[in-house]
């Protein structure tokens, strides 16, 4: 993978621009908001239980509770830029009249993740991304201030596009129609039995066929997907103030030790520490 730019700072803002051949990518579940911009590649993008078919120049936004990943349909070179950030800058510059995180938090998970721009706004977006990349290369205080202002302008642009459209640009091309009710079932029954045997009986589908179908269409096995969904749910519950034990069992885990180990490995911190930093 060629890392063209990887620029981060202490203000909770990181800009990355990378190019690579096709690689295997698991679902992401990180403690940050993300703006993803596809420069080149033949990509379907999964967010929660939804699939977006992308073309060059498309933008995907995700919040810190949405699992997401790209899936590749051909060997075309994959190039993308993305911004990961916490809520420090949006909260500092936002107001009660205009919430800079509206497009990230003001919708249901897995819905309206694809931002549609008209020609004028798309050009504005590209110019702001270029300015963010340029100012991120310099470490002097003046460029840091400029970078923050460009980032705030980018958030305003995203929110205006989001608020001007209520349509969810979800595509199902190239994805087996048999998977969509199964994905919905998983999303609605995280506390229930989501074993292959249970899904096989619920949907009258052979478990071995389901395993191959899920892997072919998502690039990930079904068990991993369920784990990431349950971890995302546990993050939400911890942020709401539930105890670690309550978050564990309420998100569908039956074994506390396994939950703790998976949370620390995938999220990067212990669930108790996550709660201290994020509970509101």
What topology emerges from the helices and strands here?
Blueprint: E1 2-8, E2 13-20, E3 33-40, E4 43-47, E5 50-53, E6 59-62, E7 68-72, E8 78-85, H1 88-93, H2 102-105, E9 114-115, H3 119-136, H4 141-163, H5 179-188, H6 196-203, H7 207-218, H8 222-239, H9 244-250, H10 256-267, H11 271-278
Number of helices: 11
**Derived structural class:** alpha+beta
Distance between the termini: 38 Å
Work out the oligomeric state of the chains in this entry: single chain
CATH class of the largest domain: Mainly Beta
CATH superfamily of the largest domain: Regulatory protein AraC
Task: Tell me the overall shape.
Answer: globular
Q: Give the CATH topology of the largest domain.
A: Jelly Rolls
Keywords: DNA-binding, Transcription, Transcription regulation
GO molecular function: DNA-binding transcription factor activity; sequence-specific DNA binding
Protein name: AraC-type DNA-binding domain-containing protein
InterPro entries: AraC-bd, Homeodomain-like_sf, HTH-like, HTH_AraC, HTH_AraC-typ_CS, RmlC-like_jellyroll
């Amino acid at each position: 993978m060629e890392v063209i730019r990887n620029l981060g700072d202490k203000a909770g803002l990181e800009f990355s621009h990378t190019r690579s051949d096709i690689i295997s990518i698991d679902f992401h579940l990180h403690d940050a908001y993300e703006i993803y911009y596809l420069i080149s590649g033949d990509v379907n993008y999964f967010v929660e239980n939804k699939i977006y078919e992308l073309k060059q120049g498309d933008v995907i936004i995700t919040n810190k509770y949405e699992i997401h990943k790209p899936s590749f349909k051909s060997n075309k070179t994959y190039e993308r830029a993305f911004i990961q950030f916490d809520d420090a800058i949006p909260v500092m510059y936002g107001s009660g009249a205009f919430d800079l995180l509206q497009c990230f938090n003001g919708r249901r998970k897995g819905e309206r993740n694809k931002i549609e721009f008209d020609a004028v706004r798309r050009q504005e977006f590209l110019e702001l991304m270029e300015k963010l990349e340029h100012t991120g290369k310099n470490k002097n205080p003046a460029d840091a201030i400029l970078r923050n202002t460009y980032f705030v302008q980018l958030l305003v642009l995203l929110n205006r596009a989001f608020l001007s459209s209520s349509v969810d640009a979800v595509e199902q091309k190239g994805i087996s129609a048999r998977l969509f009710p199964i994905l919905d079932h998983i999303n609605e029954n995280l506390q229930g039995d989501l074993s292959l045997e249970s899904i096989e009986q619920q949907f009258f589908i052979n478990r071995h066929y389901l395993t191959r179908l899920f892997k072919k269409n998502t690039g990930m096995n079904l068990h991993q997907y369920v784990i990431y969904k349950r971890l995302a749910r546990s993050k939400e519950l911890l942020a709401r103030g539930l105890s670690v034990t309550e978050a564990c069992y309420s998100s569908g885990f039956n074994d506390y030790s396994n939950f703790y180990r998976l949370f620390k490995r995938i999220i990067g911190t212990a669930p108790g520490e996550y709660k201290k930093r994020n509970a509101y």
